[in-house]
Design a protein that fits this description.
400 residues; 2 domains; 11 helices; elongated
């Protein structure tokens, strides 16, 4: 039987959708960009209005500035987005013969990930960085990867190796813009790859807060959500952000809460969790010192989701599974206890902390088409929000 959702306004679908639309309205949410900074100020002010003394915490990160990123061949040019953990060319680019990246001889050539035209996702998957390094070792001077959502718009890969980037310039191009490349590979020819950019030191902000509990010696509960990403990220980040706000409001209004509660909305998600790593660097005991963390990760309540739930151990897995059932949430994969999956829960896991994690993907994941109208289901988000509220209640009741 579905249990009634919390009555507080923040858990209602109308409020959730309005908040996700406001988040979307700030524009592109890449780390340190204007949209990311505006999100930080909005979250701080929203929590303060609820009685939660949130603050902005600045951290340094490697910001990629791109002047031009494109491939030109014959009489065609396609613009793209370089991997932020890839290399750069000089201004004017590099000229070379176009070849299939799976060819035996790639030396001195611009490699095209031709298998990506047929749905091969290994060029952007977890193992992809090793493929880039191997191509560079075989003498390729650049790599072009066609990527696309269901409509052919570009889909970007996170910069998991931002602190040790490959020297190989790698250009991601929209599948719908790059189909002519297949013909160019068939007939042969040369092209010019230009990835004119640089990696600069810049600053971004996390939003952090701590609610005190009645027992100063009690271990805290942590609630975290990423707030940055490649584009407007309405479904990727919006659900987690709306639930994070609702939980902060509800916990601030709770009169009999014994445990403290830590909140962090982190930037740097697409850059190997740069912001959360800074948060834990400043607080070395926070990951393992909390009784448990709730990670509000990607694509919570998205349309056409590939939703997952993970937990660090059997007791938390049981709490989460029961809460999701009570809230009427279905259609998700429950990962085995102990599996953090992707996302920021990994950072709690590697530091010996306990967690429950909501995460996943959806049809427009990492695409500029990830908007409220295309990708968000506010009623579905509300179901996950109700489950999150019950999970937090269970965490607050955990023994020391």
């Amino acid at each position: 039987m579905t249990r009634a959702a919390p009555a507080a306004r923040g858990f209602q679908a109308e409020t959730i959708e309005a908040r996700i639309r406001e988040y979307e309205s700030f524009g592109i949410h890449r780390t340190g960009w204007e949209g990311d900074d505006r999100t930080s100020a909005w979250l701080r002010d929203t929590l303060r209005a609820a009685g939660v003394e949130a603050e902005l915490e600045r951290f340094a990160f490697p910001r990629v500035e791109v002047r031009r990123a494109r491939l030109t061949w014959s009489d065609r040019t396609v613009d793209g987005v370089p991997l932020h953990d890839g290399g750069f060319t000089d201004q004017g680019g590099l000229e070379g013969e176009l070849c299939d990246a799976d060819a035996d001889d790639v030396f001195g050539k611009i490699a095209i990930a031709a298998s990506a035209f047929n749905g091969d996702r290994t060029w952007t998957g977890p193992e992809a960085h090793e493929r880039y390094v191997a191509l560079a070792g075989r003498g390729a001077i650049g790599l072009v990867i066609p990527t696309g959502d269901v409509d052919g718009a570009i889909v970007l890969r996170n910069a998991e190796q931002i602190n040790r980037p490959t020297t190989l310039p790698v250009l991601q191009v929209a599948l719908r813009d790059a189909r002519a490349l297949a013909s160019a590979l068939f007939v042969g020819g040369e092209g010019t790859l230009e990835v004119d950019g640089e990696r600069l030191r810049s600053r971004a902000t996390n939003v952090v807060a701590a609610l005190p509990g009645s027992d100063a010696d009690a271990r805290p509960v942590g609630v975290m959500t990423p707030k940055s990403g490649w584009f407007t990220c309405a479904a990727e980040r919006g659900g987690g952000i709306a639930i994070w706000i609702a939980l902060a409001e509800a916990l601030a209004a709770m009169q009999d809460r014994r445990r403290p509660v830590l909140f962090v909305a982190s930037s740097g998600h697409e850059l190997h969790h740069y912001g959360l790593l800074d948060y834990f660097k400043r607080r070395p005991d926070a990951a393992s010192g909390a009784v448990a963390w709730l990670h509000l990760g990607a694509s919570i309540g998205a349309r056409h989701p590939a939703a997952r739930m993970g937990a660090s151990d059997e007791p938390l897995h049981a709490i989460a599974t029961e809460a999701l059932a009570h809230a009427g949430v279905s259609g998700f994969e429950a990962m085995p206890p102990g599996a953090p999956g992707g996302g920021e829960a990994r950072e709690v896991h590697t530091r010996g902390g306990r967690f429950v994690s909501f995460l996943g993907g959806h049809r427009y994941f990492h695409s500029p088409s990830d908007t409220v109208d295309r990708a968000v289901d506010a009623e579905r988000v509300a179901g996950w929000a109700a489950a999150a509220h019950e999970i937090i209640s269970g965490m607050l009741a955990l023994p020391e």
